[in-house]
Design brief:
This protein has a single domain, classed as 3-Layer(aba) Sandwich (Aminopeptidase). The protein is about 35% helix and about 30% strand. It contains 6 helices and 8 strands, in the order ββαααβββαβαββα. It is globular. The N and C termini lie far apart (about 40 Å).
Length: about 200
């Protein structure tokens, strides 16, 4: 059995966000502005393997183009409707259509969009696409074990903690331990209701 791959032309949207398959030519400048040290005053990519900080557009575009060329990944540019501009990106990665599994990762938002409605709505759209439309069996979330905000977000969104991969890989001059989380298809109805409640909160 094989599951369908995500449609590389499909746009996902609701009243808060619009997720458009990323295009370096169309979105590169906007993504760089949202990601840059100048805009944020800090490195948004401190926990992203082999990425950032981005202080110049050429370096960011090289990163983006390499990322978009990877097989088994589909990156979305996230537009925040509140600002009517690009506010970040998210990737469906480690796609295994032969097993019906995928990871949501490489998530980042410009500082002003953090701790707003953006992430919850982005994840609601992606999770519904993965489970309701593609029919996948398993959705994964992995993060640096030092990234407390990411670990809290995973649990808030209904993921279950599966364990710690110690010294998972070497990154930025040190060992990285990776925390693993998942939602499986049997969890999805309850998680879907949980996320709907989060979206409805003021």
């Amino acid at each position: 059995m094989a599951w369908p791959l995500p449609d590389p032309h499909r746009i996902l949207e609701n009243s808060a966000v619009r997720l458009v398959p990323a295009d370096a030519a169309a979105h590169g400048a906007g993504l760089y502005k949202a990601a840059s040290l100048e805009t944020n005053g800090e490195d948004l990519f401190v926990y992203h393997p082999a990425a950032g900080p981005f202080g110049d557009q050429a370096r960011f575009l090289a990163y983006l183009e390499a990322k978009l060329a990877r097989p088994a990944e589909l990156t979305y540019t996230v537009f925040g409707r509140r600002w009517d501009e690009i506010v970040g990106a998210v990737t469906l990665m480690n796609l295994r259509a032969d097993h019906g599994t995928v990871e949501v990762g490489a998530i980042w938002y410009t500082k002003k969009a953090q701790r707003t409605e953006v992430n919850t709505n982005t994840m609601a759209l992606l999770f519904a696409y993965v489970f309701d439309e593609l029919g996948y069996r398993r959705l994964e979330w992995k993060c640096n074990n030092e990234n407390e905000a990411s670990k809290r977000a995973a649990l808030r969104l209904g993921f279950q903690y599966e364990g710690l991969f110690r010294q998972h890989f070497w990154d930025k001059g040190k060992n990285r331990d990776t925390a693993w989380y998942s939602i499986i298809d049997g969890d999805w109805p309850g998680v879907k209701a949980q996320i709907a409640t989060l979206i409805q909160r003021p």
